[in-house]
């Protein structure tokens, strides 16, 4: 897969002489020795890279919280919008790094993350020294890439020593909740990396969401996210299939939803994000499945889950079946619709009148 070809080239990139060798998936004693939570309490300048549907809302909430922001995106119109608002914009990720104490990335795929970090003008372009003490990646990517990238970041040296702390730290911190939660500042962050850095960064997470869960070492946040989205994809398919079957058997979706939500079938896909148009307000199914979490992104996350399951030798029949269903939706032209559109466009379910 392209993801793993990118990861392979990334492993070659790591062999350059300015990088030290670090054990994948664990924080090194040297980082812990240099770390001082008190010395990291200041967030004088926050860089944000990736101003798509999610990133724009996350960055906006940081601006509302009063942080001094520096932003970058490949979309020139988006950059102009922020510039017109008086927010500093930079032409490259490297320029963002040079102007920031902390950098947050929110990008579509592992290849985009690798390019932003390691491209010709990436965050790590400036050699072995780096200004930001903390880099937070909120993209949904595979755990192995997160761990390898964290090791590279940790091998760098800070341009300006902070107390006795000399090396930067990376956290993988993907989110759950989608565009609606990003807008409402109710995201949940799943965080992997150095625990002290997680605690130091909590104020940032709470400026963009309602809470965060520390998941353990580097890559564990990414692992938690793909597992969460796998469970979500399967539950949405189960709810949609059951509701479509109920309609065919003569029971309304509203009635069957009441049954689900007061009995053992109760879940987020039925109670908070119902896929049947006319059952709930203020969810994608109420607006022709616009907004929310795009089908193409769910398909991408299922690809990550399937690849990860294959790497560890885990049987994954539900992952594979869900992947095929969401692949078909994308092929049929619904890749930009919310993933709950599976009810209408795969199961041919009816709107609730």
Automatic annotation (TrEMBL):
<dbReference type="GO" id="GO:0006574">
    <property type="term" value="P:L-valine catabolic process"/>
</dbReference>
<dbReference type="GO" id="GO:0050661">
    <property type="term" value="F:NADP binding"/>
</dbReference>
<keyword id="KW-0520">NAD</keyword>
<dbReference type="InterPro" id="IPR006115">
    <property type="entry name" value="6PGDH_NADP-bd"/>
</dbReference>
<dbReference type="InterPro" id="IPR029154">
    <property type="entry name" value="HIBADH-like_NADP-bd"/>
</dbReference>
<dbReference type="InterPro" id="IPR013328">
    <property type="entry name" value="6PGD_dom2"/>
</dbReference>
<keyword id="KW-0560">Oxidoreductase</keyword>
<comment type="pathway">
    <text>Amino-acid degradation; L-valine degradation.</text>
</comment>
<dbReference type="Pfam" id="PF14833">
    <property type="entry name" value="NAD_binding_11"/>
</dbReference>
<dbReference type="GO" id="GO:0005739">
    <property type="term" value="C:mitochondrion"/>
</dbReference>
<comment type="similarity">
    <text>Belongs to the HIBADH-related family. 3-hydroxyisobutyrate dehydrogenase subfamily.</text>
</comment>
<dbReference type="Pfam" id="PF03446">
    <property type="entry name" value="NAD_binding_2"/>
</dbReference>
<feature type="domain" description="6-phosphogluconate dehydrogenase NADP-binding">
    <location>
        <begin position="45"/>
        <end position="216"/>
    </location>
</feature>
<dbReference type="InterPro" id="IPR011548">
    <property type="entry name" value="HIBADH"/>
</dbReference>
<dbReference type="GO" id="GO:0006551">
    <property type="term" value="P:L-leucine metabolic process"/>
</dbReference>
<dbReference type="InterPro" id="IPR036291">
    <property type="entry name" value="NAD(P)-bd_dom_sf"/>
</dbReference>
<feature type="domain" description="3-hydroxyisobutyrate dehydrogenase-like NAD-binding">
    <location>
        <begin position="219"/>
        <end position="344"/>
    </location>
</feature>
<keyword id="KW-0101">Branched-chain amino acid catabolism</keyword>
<keyword id="KW-0496">Mitochondrion</keyword>
<dbReference type="InterPro" id="IPR002204">
    <property type="entry name" value="3-OH-isobutyrate_DH-rel_CS"/>
</dbReference>
<dbReference type="GO" id="GO:0042803">
    <property type="term" value="F:protein homodimerization activity"/>
</dbReference>
<keyword id="KW-0809">Transit peptide</keyword>
<dbReference type="InterPro" id="IPR008927">
    <property type="entry name" value="6-PGluconate_DH-like_C_sf"/>
</dbReference>
<dbReference type="GO" id="GO:0051287">
    <property type="term" value="F:NAD binding"/>
</dbReference>
<dbReference type="GO" id="GO:0008442">
    <property type="term" value="F:3-hydroxyisobutyrate dehydrogenase activity"/>
</dbReference>
<protein>
    <recommendedName>
        <fullName>3-hydroxyisobutyrate dehydrogenase</fullName>
        <ecNumber>1.1.1.31</ecNumber>
    </recommendedName>
</protein>
């Amino acid at each position: 897969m392209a993801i793993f070809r990118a990861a392979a080239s990334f492993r070659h990139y790591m062999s350059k002489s300015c990088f030290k060798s670090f054990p994948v998936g664990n924080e090194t004693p040297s980082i812990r020795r240099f770390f001082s939570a008190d010395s990291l309490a200041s967030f004088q300048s926050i860089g944000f890279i990736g101003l798509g549907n999610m990133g724009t809302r996350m960055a906006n909430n940081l601006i509302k919280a009063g942080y001094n922001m520096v932003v970058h995106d490949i979309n020139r119109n988006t950059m102009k919008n922020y510039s017109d608002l008086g927010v500093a914009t930079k032409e490259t990720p490297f320029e963002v790094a040079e102007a920031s104490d902390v950098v947050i990335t929110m990008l579509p795929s592992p290849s985009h993350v690798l390019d932003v970090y390691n491209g010709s003008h990436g965050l790590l372009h400036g050699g072995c020294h780096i200004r930001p003490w903390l880099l937070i990646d909120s993209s949904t990517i595979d755990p192995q890439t997160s761990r390898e990238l964290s090791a590279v970041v940790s091998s760098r040296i800070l341009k300006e020593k902070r107390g006795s702390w000399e090396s930067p730290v990376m956290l993988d911190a993907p989110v759950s909740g989608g565009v609606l939660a990003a807008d409402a500042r109710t995201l949940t962050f799943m965080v992997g990396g150095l625990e002290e850095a997680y605690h130091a960064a909590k104020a940032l997470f709470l400026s963009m969401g309602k809470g965060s869960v520390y998941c353990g070492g580097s890559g564990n946040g990414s692992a938690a996210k793909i597992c969460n989205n796998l469970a979500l994809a399967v539950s949405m398919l189960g709810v949609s299939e059951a509701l479509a079957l109920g309609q065919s058997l003569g029971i309304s979706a509203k009635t069957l939803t009441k049954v689900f939500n007061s009995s053992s079938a109760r879940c987020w896909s039925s109670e908070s994000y119902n896929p049947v148009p006319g059952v709930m307000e203020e969810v994608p199914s109420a607006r022709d499945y616009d907004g929310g979490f795009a089908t193409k992104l769910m398909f991408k996350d299922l690809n990550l889950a399937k690849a990860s399951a294959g790497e560890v030798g885990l049987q994954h029949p539900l992952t594979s079946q869900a992947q095929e269903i969401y692949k078909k939706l994308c092929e049929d032209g619904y890749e930009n619709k919310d993933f709950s559109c599976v009810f209408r466009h795969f199961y041919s379910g009816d709107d609730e009148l």
